[in-house]
Design brief:
It is a single chain. With 423 residues, the chain is of the alpha/beta class. It has 12 helices and 20 strands. The protein is globular and about 65 Å long. The structure holds guanosine-5'-diphosphate, 6-O-phosphoryl inosine monophosphate and magnesium ion. Guanosine-5'-diphosphate binds next to helix 1 and strand 3.
Length: 423
């Protein structure tokens, strides 16, 4: 099949960027299909760390084309900063980075609206990255949005000002104390738009389908994770796009029958950044160990990530919704040293044990039921094959595979490109 998908199965930050970078040499095209600069995808190679927000993680592979699809929302200001960071690597972005005309633009007032909306929610806030994601997708579905293709029209600034005027009214409506200098934000925005316009805009759905007809292969790179999906995640503590497999079809214009492998990526434990339910969250020294050893701080906001045991009920749910065909387990190395590792294999819900994700997984509704797995002491970070793995890790892998019914094909044992074991 020509199109494979790579999707996060938890609450994001599973290690998607690392694996897309590793796999990028096998594909002609790498494409982002949803989300925007709320994403932070980390790549580490040759002793250097790179964090990408909107640009696909194939950008360092000089043979692949990178497409920012129609389902993505782009903030020209952040995009420009990403491009600037790439500028010393001699990447020909004008020809290897293509942008869909149908992708929506994040305006400065979208960011302000995000901040106003979160402030108005008080303690019920989503914990948004405040990149303007929610308000931009609201304008998309509300049919008011500004798209990349509009920048090629003479009247785009008129459209911009009309939309901004509406946003300013909405910001007032929230009645929160928000100080901002719109003139300065706009100066930065318009300058960044001029830079964006130097890149190549394409009718991406036509481009991609033509490429597929000509035998090209594509890897679609998901952002966020299934439990942050607008429909299937822990609503309302979610993002504003479909992070699941179907999102790749709508976010790129690829028909479902073109999809081949669906790579589902998960951490050997669980993390979540921002608010919302998290049944297996730990508040003890085990959670602190995961946080410390795994360096669990957000790649976009720097916020500490909440940590907990692996939740197999949630993982199985994500596998099902996405039609995952192969699993990739990340950060196995972080679990070295635990005497015993717990995995959630059921929920206690209204006094009964259940094996599925109910409507609400708030802590007052569900508590996790754990199975204990034996831990291992060995340092995994230099291991290169399953045969080298401690038997307890191989048992952990087999237990997960058996529970969710899909094989684990990749085990990541460190953040570097090279610390990737195919099993
Ligand atoms: P993404 O958003 O899914 O691309 O993931 P992030 O980049 O936000 O977060 C993953 C973090 O874990 C990054 O800091 C990676 O460098 C790091 N990482 C990825 N795989 C591994 C691994 O196998 N072991 C360890 N220790 N770190 C990893
Ligand atoms: P990657 O692609 C982890 C979380 C935020 C917040 C909620 C809504 O790096 O895995 P938003 O900014 O979309 O309004 O935030 O979603 N969130 C992420 N958490 N990884 C991400 O992306 C995320 N993108 C958004 O923390 O809880
Ligand atoms: Mg991330």
């Amino acid at each position: 099949m020509a199109v494979n998908l790579l999707l996060g199965l938890q609450w994001g930050d599973e290690g998607k960027g690392k694996i897309v970078d590793v796999l990028s040499g096998d594909y002609d095209i790498i494409a982002r299909f949803q989300g925007g600069p709320n994403a932070g995808h980390t790549l580490i190679f040759d002793g250097q760390k790179h964090v990408l927000h909107t640009i696909p993680s194939g950008i360092f592979n000089k043979t692949a084309l990178n497409i920012v699809g129609n389902g993505v929302v782009i903030d020209p200001v952040i995009f420009q900063k990403e491009l600037y960071k790439l500028s010393k690597y001699n990447i020909d972005v004008a020809s290897t980075l293509l942008i869909s005309r149908k992708a929506h633009l994040i305006l400065p007032t979208h960011r302000l609206l995000d901040a106003a909306s979160e402030a108005a929610k008080g303690s019920a806030k989503i914990g948004s990255t405040l990149k303007g994601i929610g308000p931009t997708y609201m304008d998309k579905t509300g049919r008011n949005g500004l798209r990349v293709g509009d920048l090629e029209l003479d009247n785009w600034e008129e459209k911009y000002h009309r939309l901004t005027a509406k946003h300013l009214g909405l910001i007032d409506f929230h009645k929160v104390d928000l100080t901002y200098d719109l003139k300065a934000l706009e100066a930065e925005f318009f300058q960044a738009v001029d830079q964006l316009k130097k890149l190549t805009f394409i009718d991406s759905e036509a481009y991609i389908n033509e490429a597929l007809k000509n035998g090209k292969t594509m890897l679609a790179e998901g952002a966020q994770g299934s439990l942050l999906d607008i429909d299937f995640g822990t609503y309302p503590f979610v993002t504003s796009s479909n992070t699941t497999a179907a999102g790749a079809c709508t976010g790129l214009g690829v028909a479902p029958n073109k999809i081949g492998e669906v790579f589902g990526i998960f951490k050997a434990y669980t993390t979540r950044v921002g608010s919302g339910p998290f049944p297996t969250e730990l508040f003890d020294e085990n959670g602190e160990t995961m946080s410390r050893v795994g360096h669990e701080f957000g790649a976009t906001t720097g916020r500490p990530r909440r940590c907990g045991w692996l939740d197999l009920i949630a993982l199985k749910y994500a596998v099902e919704i996405n039609g995952v065909t192969q699993l990739m387990m990340m950060k196995g190395d972080v679990l070295s040293g635990f005497d015993s590792i717990k995995v959630c294999t059921a929920y206690l819900y209204k006094g009964k044990e259940i094996k599925h994700l109910p409507y609400s997984i708030e802590s007052e509704d569900v508590s996790p039921v754990y199975t204990d797995c034996k831990g291992w002491k060995e340092d995994l970070t230099g291991m290169t094959s399953k045969e080298e793995f401690p038997s307890e890790l191989n048992d952990y892998i087999a237990f997960i595979e058996d529970f969710v019914g899909v094989p684990i094909r990749v085990v990541s044992v460190g953040p570097d490109r090279k610390q990737t074991v195919l099993i």
